[in-house]
Write a structure and sequence with these properties.
The chain is an alpha/beta fold. It contains five helices and eight strands, in the order βαβαβββαβαββα. The termini are close together.
């Protein structure tokens, strides 16, 4: 069974590209575009995904708030945040809540510092 990732991203081009990239790398991908969809998915998904890749700023709120709500019940899921708007306070908050990493989107829509290294580390951490 492939590792599962939940992508929370409201930008269609980036969400589609990330989904394609992860599928190519052998992940089972679920992609949602809002916090409400993410909450419903995480509430009904058992087992939880190995990784959540979340845009920080979504139309219906901050994905940091979702991680904070799930903080004591996030299980083995690792979180990586991507954002075009976050600053030091957001990155510190994310890491204090247990996020694995915090990456910045470039104006072009690509993700600065993006590589498969965090994903290899997450898989190694989980023993997959």
């Amino acid at each position: 069974m492939p590792d599962q990732i939940l992508i929370i991203e409201d930008e269609p081009l980036l969400g589609d590209e990330l989904s394609r990239q992860f599928r190519r790398d052998g992940w089972e991908v679920d992609w949602v575009k809002t916090l409400a969809q993410a909450r419903r998915f995480l509430a009904s998904s058992q087992p939880r995904p190995l990784l959540v890749l979340a845009d920080l700023s979504l139309p219906d709120g901050s994905s940091l708030d979702l991680l904070e709500q799930l903080h004591n019940d996030k299980g083995p899921t690792e979180w990586i945040f991507i954002t075009g708007y976050g600053g030091v306070p957001d990155s510190v908050r994310a890491l204090r809540l247990g996020a694995y990493d915090f990456l910045v989107k470039r104006a072009s829509g690509s993700v600065c510092g993006w590589s498969s290294a965090p994903l290899r580390a997450v898989r190694a951490h989980s023993g997959s």
